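>> Question from a student workshop board

For tomorrow's exercise we were told to take the sequence and the ligand below, predict the bound structure, and bring the output to class. My setup keeps failing. Could a helper post the expected result so I can at least see what it should look like? The ligand is iron/sulfur cluster.
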Amino acid sequence: MSKMDHRIPWCTSEDWQGVTRFFHAMTLDLNPALVQVQTLADQIRQAFEALSDPMDVLCNATCMACGDICCKKATIWYDFKDLVYLHFAFGRLPETQIKKVLDKTGTPHCMHFTETGCNLSRLERPFVCTWYLCPTQKQVMTSHEQGPDHTLLETVDHLKMLRHQIESEFCRISAGKPHPKQGKTPCRI
Ligand code: SF4
Ligand code: SF4
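>> Workshop helper replied:
Here is what the output should look like for this input. Compare the format with yours to find the bug.
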């Protein structure tokens, strides 16, 4: 197995449509308990909004001159927590699971990567794209005279906690319904 082998859930259009139908059906049930899931999704969205500007400042200071762009190297996808958040925060899932595409030279990169950065708002990116701070970014954060931005780090930790809560709350409510926790056909890229 090469280093490029990964199992990505819901990577086929059939699997993605299946998971989309599942979330749609859950919402149609109008289960009053989903109000708590909705509240958690709103809190996650607010935390992403709070992170958006400071993360953009950090990325502007580091990514423009980066010679080893992580969005080209890494293989990223939406996990189940991302889907629960996105569905309840936006009332829909994205059009597709995140895939890699080839540039003009045949080099793969995330489908959302552009020459000017990510074309998704931070609110709609997989959490890992915000959670991951590369060594350069950590260095920039710790080299500030005032030290690392603890608010930013605390908000990321808060997001982790909210994501666990929304997943367990959603799974508790939807227990008994078949969960599309994994696509039927693992993707290898
Ligand atoms: S986050 Fe780090 S590795 Fe990724 S593009 Fe920016 S500087 Fe480069
Ligand atoms: S979704 Fe955006 S931030 Fe995340 S890997 Fe793709 S281009 Fe990079």
